[in-house]
Design goal:
- The protein is of the alpha/beta class.
- It has one domain: Alpha/Beta hydrolase fold, catalytic domain (Rossmann fold, 3-Layer(aba) Sandwich), CATH 3.40.50.1820.
- It is built from 9 helices and 8 strands.
- The protein has a 6-stranded parallel sheet, sandwiched between helices. The protein has a two-stranded antiparallel sheet with strand order 5-6.
- Helix 3 (79-89) links the parallel strand 3 and strand 4 (94-100).
- Helix 2 crosses helix 3 (79-89).
- The protein starts with a strand and ends with a helix.
């Protein structure tokens, strides 16, 4: 049974992949959706000390305690930061990496390094004034999100510790060489944050590339389409 481990995005958690679970299991996949410390059902563990390394260790812990191998690691959005660190530190367990509209960091970069400078200024100001000195408010969902999905999502999205965005990723084993796929969601927001990574995936060797006619959260807005694509990718050696 192919194993897919999801590394979710910022302010999100395992709950956001609820629509995908029955679809991926019906397609014959073990579909694992861990939640990062300080988010979702683990919100009570939020603290100023929670950083990028915390979330990397969250996923590494699942891989190790569940003894998962030959894993297709699917990273969404901020999850690209986490998944890159996980793939670096657990190279023997990961078969391939899939970046779903996600950040693709290079060694030494933090997420703020890959966003416009005003994003960091706004985050730091909100953390100082509203976020107890360390939390960042969630971004609004894409405008094409259905009202019933907004009613489900918004109460569950939690502010995220700013250190997860500010801590640089340091690769321990050099550049990753395992197979990588980028999925670019073409209904972009005003910032168009993920186009540089799509362009990189189309121009660098070692990448496969796909596009979805979707906004940033296809696991919520078009789960059936995303499930078919992930099934195809996971079965590709």
């Amino acid at each position: 049974m192919p194993t897919i481990v999801v590394v979710h995005g910022a302010w999100s958690a395992a709950w956001a992949w609820k629509k995908m679970r029955p679809l991926m299991r019906a397609a014959g996949h073990e579909f694992v959706t861990p939640t990062h410390t300080g988010l979702g059902e683990r919100w009570h563990l939020s603290a100023p000390s929670v950083a990028l390394d915390t979330h990397i260790h969250d996923v590494l812990g699942v891989l190790e305690t569940e003894d998962l191998t030959d894993v297709t690691l699917v990273a969404h959005s901020y999850g690209g930061m986490v998944a890159t660190g996980v793939a670096d530190r657990a190279r023997d367990r990961i078969r391939q990496l899939v970046y779903l509209d996600a950040f693709v960091p290079r060694d030494g970069q933090c997420m703020f390094d890959m966003a416009p400078p005003e994003h960091r200024r706004r985050a730091e100001e909100w953390a100082r004034v509203e976020g107890q000195g360390y939390l960042v408010q969630p971004n609004p969902p894409p405008p094409d999100t259905a009202p019933e999905d907004l009613a489900w999502m918004l109460p569950r999205r939690r502010p995220q510790p700013i250190a997860t965005f500010a801590q640089p990723l340091h690769l321990t084993g050099g550049e990753l060489t395992l197979p990588r796929t980028y999925i670019f969601c073409t209904r972009v927001g005003p910032a168009d944050s993920f186009r540089p990574f799509a362009t990189r995936a189309k121009s660098e060797p070692g990448w496969r590339y796909h596009e979805l006619d979707a906004s940033h959260n296809p696991h919520i807005t078009m789960p059936e389409t995303l499930a078919k694509l992930l099934d195809q990718i996971a079965r590709t050696s």
